[in-house]
């Protein structure tokens, strides 16, 4: 059964770069028909899609994040990563990674990791 | 950006009652809509995709309907474990978006 696990720094200073990795187990990140997404949820608020990437390396990003986001994939390590530059307190959130099957939805999800932006 | 508006924001019901949740889109989605359930401290779980198809392992009391701009998630008879927040999500456009959520709480 496919499992995803987020890891990375839980505390980031304002103006610095947030970096997270999602390790995929129980299946290959190179499987066709899927993309791999990052989604975040500020404390007490709703869900926001950040972006996704295909195993080919093609990536798509939420326009509202204004070019601050980069998602990359490492097939050899079976993982994908997220970088968000110039962070502010508004980037404080639980960050989830998830598999996105074309035509269906996000399933499964990682357990999520809280990232706090604070000096 | 496609905006999804969910209503009501909060639904107060008793176990055994029927829950009807609405999701309205700012433009036509065809049937490219999914529903998720989220419980406190947990990641969301996919319930419905393609507007009306139940995901693997989802009980039959959950059903989805609609197309175009108006969609509905129905829980036919609420079980105690169904009290949670529900989100709709569109995949008609490459810039994926979620609705603001409906909280189903115990009355």
Strand content of chain A: over 45%
The DSSP helix count of chain A reads 0
Question: Please, what is the average pLDDT of chain A?
Answer: 95
* H/E element sequence of chain A: EEEEEEEEEEE
Cα(first) to Cα(last) distance of chain B is 35 Å
Give the termini separation of chain A.
39 Å
Q: Which two chains touch over the largest interface?
A: A-B, 21 and 22 residues
The major beta sheet of chain B can be summarized as:
7 strands, mixed
Mean pLDDT of chain B: 96
* Percent helix of chain A: under 10%
Would you mind describing this structure in some detail?
The complex is a heterodimer of chains A (119) and B (107). Chain A has 119 residues and is mainly β. In chain A, 0% of the residues lie in helices and 53% in strands. Chain A has no helices and eleven strands. In chain A, strands 2, 4, 5, 6, 9, 10 and 11 form a seven-stranded mixed sheet that branches. In chain A, strand 9 (93-101) and strand 10 form a beta hairpin. Chain A starts with a strand and ends with a strand. With 107 residues, chain B is mainly beta. In chain B, the strands form two sheets. In chain B, strands 2, 4, 5, 6, 9, 10 and 11 form a seven-stranded mixed sheet that branches. A four-stranded antiparallel sheet of chain B has the order 1-3-8-7, with no helix packed on it. In chain B, strand 7 and strand 8 form a beta hairpin. The interface between A and B is medium-sized, with 21 and 22 residues.
């Amino acid at each position: 059964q496919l499992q995803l696990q987020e890891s990375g720094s839980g505390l980031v200073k304002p103006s610095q770069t947030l970096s997270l990795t999602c390790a995929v187990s129980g299946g290959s990140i190179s499987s066709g028909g899927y993309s791999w997404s990052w989604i975040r949820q500020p404390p007490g608020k709703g869900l926001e899609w950040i972006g996704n990437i295909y195993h080919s390396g093609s990536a798509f990003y939420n326009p509202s994040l204004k070019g601050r986001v980069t998602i990359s994939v490492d097939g050899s390590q079976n993982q994908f990563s997220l970088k968000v530059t110039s962070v502010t307190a508004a980037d404080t959130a639980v960050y989830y990674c998830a598999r996105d099957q074309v035509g269906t939805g996000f399933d499964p999800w990682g357990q999520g990791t809280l990232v706090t932006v604070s000096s | 950006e496609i905006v999804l508006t969910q209503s009501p924001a909060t639904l107060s019901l008793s176990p055994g009652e029927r829950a009807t949740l609405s999701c309205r889109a700012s433009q036509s989605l065809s049937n490219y809509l999914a529903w998720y359930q989220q419980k406190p401290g947990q990641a969301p779980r996919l319930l419905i995709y393609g507007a009306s198809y139940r995901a693997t392992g989802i009980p039959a009391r959950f059903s989805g309907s609609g197309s175009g701009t108006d969609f509905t998630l129905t829980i036919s008879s609420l079980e105690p474990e169904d009290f949670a927040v529900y989100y709709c999500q569109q995949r008609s456009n490459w810039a994926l978006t979620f609705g603001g959520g409906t909280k189903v709480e115990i009355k």
